[in-house]
Each structure stands twice: as structure tokens, then as C-alpha cells.
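To fix ideas, we give here one paired sequence and structure record:
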Amino acid sequence: MNYPETKTVDTIDTYFNTEVKDPYRWLEDDKSEDTVTWVKTQNKTTFSYLNSIPYRKDLKERLSKLWNYEKTGSPFKEGNYTYFYKNDGLQNQYVIYRYKTGEDPSTASIFLDPNTFKEDGTISLGGISFSKNGKILAYSISEGGSDWRKILVMDAETKTIIEDTLVDIKFSGMSWYKNEGFYYSSYDKPEGSKLSAKTDQHKVYYHKLGTPQKQDKLIYGGTDKEKHRYIYGSVTEDNRYLIISPRISTSGNKLFIKDLTNPNSKLVTILDHIDSDTYVIDNVGSKLFLVTNLNAPNKKIVTVDASNPTPDNWVDFIPETENVLSPSNGGGYFFAEYMIDAVSKVLQYDYSGTLIREVKLPGVGSVGGFGAKKQERELYYSFTNYKTPGNIYKYDIENGTSQLYQKPDIDFNPEDYESNQVFYTSKDGTKVPMIITHKKGLELNGKNPTILYGYGGFNISLTPSFSITNAIWMEQGGILAVPNLRGGGEYGKAWHNAGTKMQKQNVFDDFIAAGEYLIQKKYTSSDYLAIRGGSNGGLLVGATITQRPDLAKVALPAVGVLDMLRYHTFTSGAGWAYDYGTAEDSKDMFKYLKGYSPLHNIKAGMEYPATLITTGDHDDRVVPAHSFKFVAELQSKQAGNNPTLIRIETDAGHGVGTPVSKIIEQYADIFGFTLYNMGFEVLPSKVNEKVKG
């Protein structure tokens, strides 16, 4: 490969008397013409290579065909209407439909169509929130995939915009107080680049309808005394309380409550420290129900009176168990969803804490939903796993029966595939679960193209779910393997903490051991293994190829955190310090981060896997400079013939809201690159057809 030349600069940082060179620092300036030119040149090189892959077009056509089926979300009621999201097939963005509650759903008509926001679909709909009477809608939009949002306010009956647009809003919900206004969160607009400059003073505001944004009242945050990088305000369903939840990082929060029935009430402290993740799930009068992992790593629900809500007054309501709890509520009941080896189980409780029943689920997999307003008598939930497209079920809350409500009509037969959970041993002896999915009758000959996908961070759990793109991969005879690495939340807070800060190496060891297991058991071999992950998972892939460049043939890091010495200097990156620590924390923390930081561990003359890095030019969560600097370093030091390329999507961010058309193109390129570098001159499915013929 002849790569574009990337200039170097003499930038040096000093950490605890250790000098660290940063020759590609100039690529951090996303507003620079030099960076813009570099992006264009890299993309030209990348697409020249991708265009030479003979079956890239076939993959795109198959992706488009399989994607082209009607997808419908669970119905929800607001005011006099029932709403639902729907995509006819290849629409870039989902459309919101509605019908009068009680009438035939077939009478539904379009309520809000984000595809009309911009022709190419790069302006997407974010969150939506209806006033308590359902007559007014506040909704947020994202332009070009950015985390920065605008909020528009609409008369839900006439579908007309009734106020000026609210701007410069980020990491925010919209929580209504009655029908008078709503709470939202944002940062001060940063100096310099809006897409990369640091943002670390989150604030909660109240917007009263009929007033300009400049008059919005600051409710919490914005003091120099302490930086809260994420603060959220929410109103209880009965309009009685405002809950404020300030966070310094992505893990742990303080908690305050304000009585909205008394205009002169003050914020009352529930928690004044960040030693737990705790939130109010509901209330009955002054009785609060809180979900917490304080002294309960797997979470529990407690009750307390709002007049004296500190932990010394908490009473267990649903005690902690050996499995991780993720509860929801609706129709006057709590639904306690538990993860058992990353698979869902749901128990229904009443508000006195009595177990009513275990909800009979359609199979082994993941459920979502189980939420509704208190007065509802039915709710909807989704069920999926790696080989089952998401079905929607209607659940009768009183008698506990489920009825299939929506089954997608997709050109994919789950009966042709099998999905099995295995447990393998990591480097330090820890047992780690992994789900392996593939076509039935697969021959374990070490030659099956395999994608090992991982994340391992931020208490996030990878539970089984269907993906059209994964279905395409498995159609080609590919294997999908997803391990539940430490750093995730599958086994509670202890599992999360075991993959943070100076235990981060456990995550990489778990991932490497998963790859070795697949090779040992002859599912695949190094020549047919691809490793893939995004964001924190991009870090996982980057660290794996620098530590074990021999493990896989292909590496696919997406929107990755790859410069571990400077990640916290961009946008809201400082909030990730709970998981990572920072290079300024201590000499030991600096040395540990530098020891695994993908950017700083690329060695000259080493043969690294064929690597396709993907990012978006509007990614303001993990700024694309991580990927830019990493590929420049990798291109300068890569030995052998494996290509090292970067695919930079324009008008795209960290992933949320990406138009379907762009997603299809991206995956045709990713899978084409992967199979081509595994040595397939035609698609594996075509080879199988010839063999059968």
C-alpha cells in the first residue's frame, strides 16, 4: 500500500518527568484546512482500495434487500392518541405514527417524519417528551450526528411549531412539569471547536412555555466549587417532585429532591456522595422507591419517606440477589428484570413488595420495555436474541399473559441458525461467558470467517439481540462470537470494577482469551478471525492488536478511544475517568495508561492485522482525532502487506441517528474488507453454492 504522507510535528508532553512525543497533534484541530485535506486524501486512498473488492456491490445489494422490511416499535399512549415508531424498510429515519386511542390501529397516520428534516437523512430525531396532558410535544434533533441538540416545541393536535427553537443542548432529556414547561440539561457553548473543545460544566435548566430560552431558569450546576459533567432533572409522574442527579463521571451520582407543590421548597439531599448509582423509580405520595447499588453491587429497590430520605432511613423493598437487577414499572406494578449469565428473567411485584409472578417469556434472550403509565392495564415489551428478530408482545398486567403483537416479516429464518453460550477461562482463571451464533451444521475446521465482537466497559452489558448486519455475516457462513468481558455490567458492580483503571488489562485479557478459545476449538483460526468493537470497544480492538498482533487477520476498531493520555482533554471525555483514570492522576496511573494506550504501543517493523478504522467527522463524543492519529502512526510503522486504512464518514457522529443508507454502505465496506483480507475472492455463500451445485 502507498499511503498518503502524514506530516509530523515536534510536539512533546511531559508527564512526571517523562517526555512523550505526539507527532500528529495537528490532526486534533478539526477546523484546520490541513486536517480537512488530510481527511479527503485518506478517504480517497481507502475508497480506491474498497472499490477493488469484487463483491462489495453484492454485499450492499443483499444488505439493502434484507433491510427492506417493515419495522415497528411498541405503542405508547399520550393524551388522546396512541403513538408508535415505524420504518417502511429503507427509510433513513424512523417515522412516528399515531391514531386515536380506542380506534383501529390501521387508521394511523404520520405524526412526525424526520426524513423531511433533510433530504439525505443526516438530521435525525433525538428524544421526544409529551406534556402531562399529551397536548404539547418537545423533541430534540441532531445535525450531522453530533451530540449537540436543538429542541423544538410542537402543538401535538395541530402539528405546528409554537415556540422558537432551543439551541446548544447536549446530553439532555426533557422532563415536563404539568403542561407548563420542561427541564433540560446543557453545557455552556465551548470556546474553539464545538466538536472537540472540552465541556465539563453541565447544568439543569427549566424552560417555561411562552418565554425565550435566554430567560430559562438555572436550577442546578454551573458553580466553580465542583464540576458536575452530567446532571439530569426529572419530574415524578404525579408532578410532585423534581429529582436532580449530578454526576462527576459516568459512574456514581449524588441525588437531590425538591417538592414542587411548595414554590419555596429547597433541594433536599438524598445522597451527598458519588459512591453509588441511585435513582428514584417512582413514588406514592411522599413514599419514594429508589433503585440503588449502594452496598448492593447487583442493585436493589429500597423505600424511604421524602421528608427524611437519607440512606440510614432506607428500607429494603426488593432486596439484592445474586443476579443483576434492572427494574421498570407500569400499571401499578414493578417488573424486576434480572440478568442471569446475560439472559433475561422478569419478576412482577406489587407496590407492597409481594411477588405476583414470574413473567413467562417467549424464549431465551433479551427483553426490553415493561414500562407504562400507572393507569394502564396493558404494556408492550420486545424479545430478541442473536438469531431472532425483535418481536413485540402485548402483556396483560393483571393476568400475566403475553400475546404476540408484532412479528417482523424479514427474509431470514432463525431455524437455520443456532446460538450457544459457552464459558471459557481468561488469563487469571476467571470464567467468562460467550455466546456463539452461526448456521446449523457448521463444520469446526478452523476455516470459518469469524467476528469476535466486544466492549467491556462502563457497566454496559452485551445481552443477546438481533442485528440485520450480523444476519448478513452469518448468511455468508460467518460466526458471530460475543463475550461478556469484565468492565461490563453483566455480573454487577464488582464485574464492572474488575475492568477499570489499573485493572483494565483484565478486559483485554478476557478478549484475547475469547479469540484463543475460538481457535483452540476449531471454530476458526487466526487467518479467518476478525476482531471488532466500537468506542470503548474500539480501544479494546486497538489494545488487542498492539498486544497480540498475531491473534487475528482483520481488525475493525470503530470510533475508538485510542489516545489514553489525552482522551480526557476533549469534549466530555474527562467524565470517563472512573473507568480509565487519567495521565495526570499519578505517576503509576500515567505509566499504566501509557503501557496499553493503542496509539503509544505501535512498534515499527511489526506486522499488524489488516485494519479498517471507521469514524465520523461529527463525532463529538470520541473525537475522530483518536482515529486520525492512530492510523497515521500505524501506517508509518506497519510491516508486511496488510492494509491499514481509515474510512471517515462525513456528516456522521458516534453512531446514533446515522441514516440507514450510510449504515448499509458502511457495512458493505466493513464486511467486504474483512472477507477480502481473509482471502475470499468471491463471497463464501457463493462458494458454498458452487460446492452444492
